[in-house]
Amino acid sequence: MLLLSGPNISGNEWKYVKECLDTGWVSSVGSYVSKFENMMAEYTGCKYGVATSNGTAALHIALLLTGVKRDDYVIAPNVTFIATINAIKYNNADPILIDVDEETWQMDLDLLEEFLENETDEKNGELFCVRDGRAIRCILPVHVLGNVCDIDKLLAIAKKYNLKVIEDATESLGTFYKGKHTGGFGSMGCFSFNGNKIITTGGGGVIVTNDEDLAKKAKHLTTQAKSDPFEYKHDEIGYNFRLVNVLAAMGVAQLELLPSFVKRKKEIDTFYKKELNGTGDIRFQKVQEETDPNYWLFTIMTEKQKEVLKILNDNEMQSRPFWVPMNQLPMFAQNIYFNHNDCSDYIYKRCLSIPCSTNIRDEEMASVSEKIRSVYQ
Length: 377
Ligand SMILES: *Cc1c(COP(=O)(O)O)cnc(C)c1O
Description:
A hairpin with a 2-residue loop joins strand 8 and strand 9. This protein has eleven helices and 17 strands. It has two domains: 13-255, Aspartate Aminotransferase, domain 2; 257-375, Aspartate Aminotransferase, domain 1, CATH 3.90.1150.10. The chain is of the alpha/beta class. The strands form three sheets. Strands 1, 2, 3, 4, 5, 6, 7, 10, 11 and 16 form a ten-stranded mixed beta sheet that branches. Helices cover 37% and strands 16% of the residues. It has helices at residues 13-23, 31-44, 55-65, 82-90, 109-119, 151-160, 212-222, 245-276, 305-314, 343-348, 362-375, and strands at residues 48-52, 73-77, 94-98, 120-123, 126-129, 135-139, 164-168, 176-177, 180-181, 188-192, 205-209, 283-284, 291-292, 299-301, 320-321, 337-338, 351-353. The model has no long low-confidence stretch (mean pLDDT 97). Bound molecules: pyridoxal-5'-phosphate.
């Protein structure tokens, strides 16, 4: 089976993990955790990194630290992986779902502006939704497939409405906008190291930030909020969201490989575009200007989505449709979904991702392309 986006364990993973096993430092204490946090901070150009058990936990804690409370709203795109919206719900808040741009597949910033302009009110420095008077706490953009929206525009909108920005950067490790890495634009950025991401620790996450206070609080909350180094004194309800040393060791080895992975992802993108450009109605995700994406998951858009998915999966070439838009899931069907012509649904019915693991061979990509082309003959 040719995997959609599988792990590539080809560096010092065995060596570093073995060291943990040999010394017994396998659990929540050990030097690889802070090493991994520091490397993530350095790579993303942020001052601090706090490791978490996964990307969902990172989002959960980042929202909590932004002051998201019961019945608050968090603005998020309607096209994302479920974890983004679940993290909002874990804080007892609700999403305001904004439709996405048909070309970049990121949150539509014109719609966002329109919503804020027409549907919100400011009182004592806080923003409220006029429909029900509930507070809007922050914006949670998602860098879908490792691409981004017009971040400068997003930040200007956020500033105008006095809203914090938390980045769901779980798919965008290796993505730079105007020379600056994603995750550092908002007050906090969240990364994931799940098995299908550009680097993996099996499961894991990191929160990056330039704010020392937020970093300290994130560490505290993710490690059971223990307030005394010796006695079991805890000063609030904390979480066991830490990343264990064995997995952090794997993360250090994977981060060493990241530049080569980004390079390979870019080659894969170029290869497929050359093979598939001009085939039927196939279109590709538009890359935002002045962006160096990580080309994480190669995705095409076509009316023949079902046929392409079938022929690839029938031939052991793992391919997947896009996420079901959040407003179409039963848990979020009652939430505000701000849109004009439901681009989310349009994209959902036409997009599919095809095998693009960093260790895929050129011949394998050529066979995938050939199978896809056969659908249009
Ligand atoms: C992977 C992913 C997450 C969650 O990360 P986990 O590490 O799997 O918890 C959140 N949001 C998006 C958009 C993702 O792709």
